Amino acid sequence: NAGVMQNPRHLVRRRGQEARLRCSPMKGHSHVYWYRQLPEEGLKFMVYLQKENIIDESGMPKERFSAEFPKEGPSILRIQQVVRGDSAAYFCASSPRQGAFADTQYFGPGTRLTVL
Amino acid sequence: SQQGEEDPQALSIQEGENATMNCSYKTSINNLQWYRQNSGRGLVHLILIRSNEREKHSGRLRVTLDTSKKSSSLLITASRAADTASYFCATGQGAQKLVFGQGTRLTINP
Q1: Do A35 and B100 lie within an 8 Å CB cutoff?
Q2: Contact (CB<8Å) B101/A107
């Protein structure tokens, strides 16, 4: 059973460009979470999605950031008009939300975004 | 605001010694989870302890939870060089997000 997959692993963008980060959850998981980690800091929650629904986006910046988890395909975190402050590692996690490991979140390797 | 606060921020010990890291939090929780992160890598889930549990073991790991003090500890026994990493506690609230602390950077010296 493959783990959570994220791509790309590294992404470089110039200010003003768009960044698209992809996350494929573990097989059988329909709950996806996105977190951001600045250097030397812990992870900060951004958004929680189920298939085709945003459940909690309380950690998402109000502008330029959006997330989706379509019925088919990976979850996408989209950052429009990137600025240098968006440079960070973005982690996706998935959870089964049922069974013995319902509350455990399994993390992907992350996408390291660098904005020049 | 951050929920979990790890203590110490950095810990350096000799291989073979035990390492203890602490985590405090502020609000009520459903569960508390510990994760390990090697430099520049993703997070590896170590252990989950529920709010009605007091202690849990997994291999060389021992986690305690004191809900009256809103604190948890992670003990790694007989440390190895491969244990060098950052360790984060994260509190689960409701069925959704995890709230992470700043982490403890553990260095095991050979």
Answers
A1: yes
A2: no
Q: Using the structure block, give the residue that is written with the tokens 């298939």.
A: A51
Has residue B42 got a pLDDT over 50? yes
Contacts of B88 in chain A (CB under 8 A): 42-43
Cβ B96–A55 below 8 Å, yes or no? yes
Rounded Cα–Cα distance for residues A88 and B14 (Å): 32
Element (H, E) at A90: strand A88-95
Phi, psi dihedral angles at A63 (to 5 degrees): -120, 150
pLDDT at res. B94: 61
Per-residue pLDDT reduced to its tens digit, A51-97: 889 999 999 999 999 999 999 999 999 999 999 999 999 999 998 86
Task: Return the H-helix or E-strand segment holding A105.
Answer: none
B102/A45 Cβ within 8 A: no
Considering only residues 85 to 114 of chain A, which have any Cβ-Cβ distance to chain B shorter than 8 Å?
91, 93, 97, 103-110, 112
State the pLDDT confidence band at B1, using cuts at 50, 70 and 90: very low
In this prediction, residues B75-80 reach a mean pLDDT of: 97
- Residue B91, CA distances (Å) to A71, B34, B78, B97, B106 in order: 29, 9, 26, 8, 20
Tokens (6 digits) for A85: 């402050």
